[in-house]
Amino acid sequence: MFGIDAPELLVIAAVALIVIGPKELPGMLRSIGRWMATARNMAGEFRGHVDDMMRQAELDELKKQVEAGAKDAVLDLQGLDPTREIKAAITEGASDVEKEMTAARASVDASTADALEPPPVTTAELAAPADPVASVSPVEPEAAAVPPVSEDVASAAPEAPPAEPVVPTPANQPAAPPKVAVG
To answer: pTM of the predicted model, to two decimals?
Structure first.
């Protein structure tokens, strides 16, 4: 600090103690502290004023640049509207979705049209069978409904009681209580 080292401060303190005296030295140090605080406050205010002047000069320079730029190009505030940009992006996305939906509908319509067409019939399927008797077997309608059961399987499996038909109940009616077998 100001090029004063510790030994020099000790010499100054000793001279001040001898010249001022031990009784008046604390009051003198207080007044020096107050003077230093006032000097610091004044320096801070001066620095603040200088900073304000620098900011004002920068703002004036910026203002001149904007005015010079405004003469060259008109400032378009409509072009800075973010809601218009968002709306444009949404409508663009919606049109893309509509294009994809029409393409999907067309592909679904084409696939359903292909599914509804009957398969092509070959000439071999249209030809009559060579032996009409071998291709048709006389089967009783009752025999066709029940497969034949061997005697071993029939004797091993117990006869099951006939199942009760399941009748669905409407949604607004309560379900019937379950039947309990007693015995």
So the answer is: 0.31
